[in-house]
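protien #1 (seq + structre)
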Amino acid sequence: MRLHRLTLTAFGPFGGTQSVDFDDLSTAGLFLLHGPTGAGKTSVLDAVCYALYGSVPGARQGGGQGTALRSDHAAPATRTEVTLDLTVAGRRLEVTRQPPWERPKKRGTGTTLDKAQTWLREYDATAGAWKDLSRSHQEIGEEITQLLGMSREQFCQVVLLPQGDFARFLRADAEARGKLLGRLFDTRRFADVEKSLAERRRATEAQVRDGDAELLADAHRMQQAAGEAMELPELAPGEPGLADAVLSAAAVARSTAREQLTVAAGRLTAAESAQAAAARALDDARELARLQRRFAQARERAARLEQGAEAYREAQALMERARKAEAVAPALELRESSEAEHRRAAAAEARARALLPDTFADAGAVGLAAAARRAAEELGGLDSARRAERRLAELLDERAGLDRQERADADLLQEAEAWLDGWEETRTALQTRVDSAQQAAALAEQLAVRREPAQQRLRAARMRDQHAQDTDRAVDRVRTAQDETLRAKQHWLDLKEQRLNGIAAELAANLTDGEPCTVCGATEHPAPARKVAGHVGREAEEHALTAYQRADEQRAEDERRLGVVREALAAATAEAGDTPTRQLADEVAELEEQYAQARSAAAELHAAQERLRQAGHEHEQRLAARQETAVRAASRVGHRERLDRERAALEEELDRARGSLDSVAARAAQLERRTALLTDAADTARVAEDTAKRLKDADARLSDAAFRAGFETPQAAAAALLDNAAHRELQRRLDAWQHEEAAVRAVLAEADTAAAAREPQADLDAAQQTADEAARRLRDAASAHDAAGRRCTELDRLSARATASVRRLAPLREEYDRVARMAGLAAGTSADNERRMRLESYVLAARLEQVAAAATVRLRRMSSGRYTLVHSDDRTGRGRSGLGLHVVDAWTGRERDTATLSGGETFFASLALALGLADVVTDEAGGVRLDTLFIDEGFGSLDDQTLDEVLDVLDSLRERDRSVGIVSHVADLRRRIHAQLEVVKGRTGSVLRQRGTG
């Protein structure tokens, strides 16, 4: 990798645009980057890192989006930008990055946030021009990382050599060295292998423990089922021998349970026989008691029958008189019905005679019938007068119709004359409306062509205004999301730092006596750390990390939406132009109003043409109606004379028929009522005479029937007669007495009942008590037998389940032993791992050995052959081995720790270590050639001779066209190194000056 040119604009302390020509500086091979403190030397290196990776090292990144990289000295309208021209892997590339920029709004007041931009171009030597490759942050980042073969952290350690970090590396313990080397060589896969093995060990161990716990739970269930016949092994889940002990105890419990089942079966058989004998004795006692009660009850019923014999004989006599009275019942019913019929007929006759005149009071049925016939004959003579009356009404209606027709024709003639007088004026007005509507239709077609473009432009203007408002809101959301992301990240980092400060207590919580510590490997834990108040655990840290990631995802989503809204705003602005929306709306409204008026007027065209056609048709109808009216007036004169003559004849006939009444209808109604009253009175008189005769006949028949039945009078026969309810009740009493007498005689005649009565009184209580006791013993024996059977069944089921569990756990136990052995080896806790070295530490130790060998080549030259760096895998105290680093002093022949070096010795040792690390990381990254290196600070601690030797070593790096930049403010280096890049700071920002080149 070789740097050609770096261009900065509004970056860090540089308010304007500054450019660095690395090709010019590299001609000398070794160049100096110097300047006063705070001028911006490190910012030049930050710019190189930002151009390649989109971020700067450490806390200098500021906010997660790089907004802190902008220079405070820059003008508001100047955007921050970094452009780097470099050659890597044989390709000439140019990377340009712009961080997010909060710029003034183009319209209105306030600011808006523009998202970050990135460009990647490649120089085409054949065409002699640059060609664009990508504008995607992700694609460019992946491309640069793939070409360089190293991450940002590796680049900052290999290309931008920070001597302070390597000095600390020399003095650090194994854990700190492991963290740095792990980042550089990316040994996370080996740590993941350790973690995976540990997780598998814990998982399989948990499964084995769960299986043993399930097996032990089954053993407890078997113990509960077996009662006192089973003893459990005193072993915990996971301990050896638990399965065999449980299966052995289960076998003993099953054998004991089967013996108990055999004993319970014998007891159940004996109890069943005793219970059957007691039940038979109880049934015999119950039957004897029943027969004795039956005989006693029969004697009591016989006594009650003897007491009621007199009442039974009286009831028989009453029933006999009722049977005789039943022969007189038809005659009684006939007499009662005839009397009722006669009363109804007499009442009807009285009502009918009350409606007649007094002249008919003494008339009989024959006289009333004759008067009714005379009234009917007179009514029939009025039919001709009725017809004449109806014809007269028709004549009057017809004459009124002629009068109405005459008035209607007069009105019609007057209207037609008036309409025809204004015909010419009406026709001219209608024709004018048709012409106006045709002109409006033509105008509407012209306006319709202009409507759609105007409306489309108005819609685009409204969308432009809406997108402008959406853009402002999106900018506010992006700014809020950025602040929230910064707060969430800072909160996560704070919690992470608090957890790391108290990680010892968290690790100590998992310590077990006799088990090796996962940190130091010791099996004894005399004073484990304790958690203090406010301790931050893994869940709190992960929760904070999740909150930060969600906030960062929301920030990215808000930035994406802001870009979408801005693109929509640009498209709407291009279509609508700069004309205000209100002005466009007014123009469209005016155009719409004109178009609506024209369409409204054009819509009247068809109606106007139709009205003109209808008016012509009506003109013809008016002329025809005037002629028809004259013809009808002439015909009405003769018709009216004929109606008058017929009316006079009808009125003379009706005067004769009405008499003293107002009309023929009134006279007819009078005759109809008289005829109906006389007819009704005659009918009711005949019915009354007939019913009187039938009543007399019924009295004679009743007297004769009572005498033949043996009753002195009809009244006596009626008194002896019973109604249906009384008859049924009396018969029921007689039947009940007879049935009871027969039942009592039958019971007293039973031989077994009489024999039972002669036996002693049955003792049911004693028999019941004996039967209950036998039933209780049977239930106890059955319960014991069922319990023994269930115990055997449950023990067989649980034993089979335990046996299946043991077989199922056998492969899992083997897997657990194998995984636990591998996890112990990888974690350095196994006895087979003599140096107690973790897998990741083992890999890093190999890398550190390579780094020490590469660093020794340059360290021997810097120290005039005195010092040599060697890797040590010895253990330090109670810790683990693998990452030790010692220095061998050739003057004394002794090997000592690098922490014992002096300040100057530490500097050139760390420089040699940094250069060696750069070589190893470069080889690890695929052999990418690093033609440009930067070394930061530390030269002030060297004497003149050592400084010369160090510079000679650095000067040797120029071999094969490599250039080295030294970042320092040591004054002596300005005399020794001619090619210089000076950073000059001022009140308006820093500037860059190149000297001693070209």
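ok now protien #2
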Amino acid sequence: MPRRTPRIALDGVRTSRRLFGFLKTASVCVLIAGLLSPLTQTAAAAGATASDDYCGGQCSDILPPGENGNATLAQILLNQAFGTQPAHAEDQLGPYANLATGYPGLTDATINTFFNDASFGVPSDQVASTEKPAGRGDVTIVRDKKTGVPHITGTTRYGTEFGAGYAAAEDRLWLMDVFRHVGRGRLTSFAGGAPANQGLEQQFYRNAPYTEADLQAQIDSAVAKNGARGRQALADVNAYLAGVNAYIDASDSGRYFPGEYVLTGHKDSITNAGTIEHFKVTDLVALASVIGSLFGSGGGGEVSNALSLMAAQAKYGVEEGTRVWESFRERNDPEAVLTVHDGESFPYGARPADAQGEALPDAGSVTQEPLVHDRTGSAGSAAAKSMSGSAARTALSSARRGMSNALVVSGKYTASGHPIAVFGPQTGYFAPQLLMLQEIQGPGISARGASFAGLSMYVELGRGQDYSWSATTSGQDIIDTYAVELCQDDYHYLYHGTCTAMDKVEQKNAWKPTVADGTAAGSYTMRAWRTKYGPVEYRATVGGKKVAYTTLRSSYLHEADSIIGFQMLNDPDYIKGPQDFRNAAQHINYTFNWFYADSQHTAYHNSGDNPVRASGVDAEFPVWAQQAYEWRNWDPASNTADYTPAAAHPHSVDQDYYVSWNNKQAKDYTTASWGDGSVHRGNLLDDRVKKLVAAGGVTRAKLVKAMADAAVADLRAEDVLPKLLKVIDSSPVTDSTAAAAVSRLQAWVTAGAKRTETSAGSRTYANADAIRILDAWWPLLVRAEFEPGLGSDLYSAFTASLPIDEVPSAGHGPTGSHAGSSFQYGWWSYVDKDIRAVLGEPVQGGPARQYCGGGSLTACRDILISTLKQAAGLTAAQVYPGDDQCSAGDQWCADSIAQRTLGGIKHGRIGWQNRPTFQQVVEYTSHR
């Protein structure tokens, strides 16, 4: 009997809330007969031939929930009614989830209990099916029995890419369609007007308000400036799209297309009337703009920075206020964990000695530029307007979705003498997943791994014949804010002394209720005003002059450029070692940390088009839109400029080990987001890997265990709580409530400070009371520690730049709730440094002032005990108030990870882990 899956309330894109009502009226028998599945594929007589594979069976990967992200209408209805799952829709979810409790006993021999074998090819006894897409003779798609991953083998380059497109559509067609509409700001018209859909399209349209001509120009530019590789990339894209569109035609005529097209009103379940639009080249640019904005565009937040600096200066005066602001900004903290830790300096984004061109707003003058206009119907609801506000805050914050981690150890410290890597991107949890697995073998391409759906003409993160690569988000600042002086009216500005009209770009959306989304009919217009310095984000006055604040990022109008770097990474004739890897990574214009391992070497390179700023410009704050403060050799027509050379980007080869969890890359290299201080989640990796390297004899299992142990650790409890308890224990604790709380917290620290179940499947945490107490205590103690000294205005300004906490159950911050990724953004470094200062311990880069108790140990202790008692008195229901997925007081559920529904298939929740979504474990045994 198929397993029943717990129902998950929809989040993100809504597609199926009214399905049960639909079940009552639909002719289910007819639907199942006509739509249950595509034509059965033929079982292969022999397995695919493994191309040159030098991993010796020691490459593994995992990507939950499953490879199959498409479902027919009948499969969706069965899932909604009975919890049944289409084949391979969630068969990687269980192994992934089980590592959280299974890692303590892990050995090299049991790694693939929790991961997939990522060897090239499919053994003959493991072949589930083969197909010749569209009857082509130059490409074969083989799928394996265990996971259903497509293994695409072509005899021609065109056929290979055609097969990649066909396989992508087989596994992710609906998701690809959703995100091409998100990238164009047209999601509500396509999928329904749910407030979440409104927020999603607004978030991305604000950052990339492109016209169709803009999208095409980006393709033309990327091809023109990259010679033969550019022309090959365009040919690959066209072949890939031909494969996607061939599947659309086949599934349409065969009536096995994704059922969401029926539920959203694009297809008729009985007559098959309606159209699934073919994909075109510009769709892929729209898709790329979404992914780049989510994971690879560091920077922004200059206006918020200006407001918090002004608040600090208003309280303390200019000199002291600036010193206080800089101590909270931590732009180059000497205690920060580093990826390149050999002492080499890579200066970027440093504070200039004499800042030039700053354009700080007049107090109280800043207003956010409205994006949404002419609301009608449900677009005018309170929920819709609230979602618009949330989307704007997310789009304009410098706290980008970082996520992703990497642990890489040199062969000098491993048992085998070969490097070992455990790494992957932390891209959130979705159903279907944003990424998809594939293997591609053809002329000039040999790779297996993950790619974003709709951009899978190449493997973007994975392995080649004798090397693997992965990435984490880096977040260095490639976005600047300019103050353009207005002239004539609010929609003209001075450009090099000439009054110039802004460019108005609009997207009008309307929706009506569907089976998938019952949101009442409504409409609105998104309107962006663009200047040569980028889109307008705020209005203000500076020195009494009316200005518009615009944001300009180096990847704006260049969403397609990175395709060349990925093409290189897939090319076995190009990648022969670390230097080739670095060259390929440098061709990727998004802000990422790239990691590499083969049988002999490890390497690291930071990518991104880092603009060369004018002398004296401080990238932290808005500057005047004047020629003297523009990027060096900036051309507004193409948005190109001088960029820092590859040698200036943090990089390294064969360092003893590398760790990254979106922490600071190297000495003197400043990232845009706040919080790179003495306590960062990167420390959870660094502490563990450093111990492994010191002991030597590192194995794949040991490195996986280090990652998995960090994945269930509470950063606050491991790195800050012991110091808080040291303050409290500086005198005997006489209050019984406080003493009991201290005892529980200390026992938790002694046990390892983990958020883990008492036993697998218990759904109850060990040390549950201590976890509840700390979750309740942290926000109370942070406010009590800092707000009296900072004052309410400055405290609020700083929390706008950096949230105080990001626990797994948090419903605030950049990642939301039930998202897995935790402890990236928070005040743990501030608390750590301040408490150490109060204790009289040495602090490098310490706070400008002492805040806890005004620097008095006794007064600080009183604050901690008072807030601890308050926290201990809060019930689980108060600390975990419940939401649309969990009842109040259910601690495990509050932390749990939900696969956020982007289609009609739902999956059950899994226990919390703070780890990559797609993850590789690799150790190569030989090299070409």
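DSSP finds 27 helices and 30 strands in the chain.
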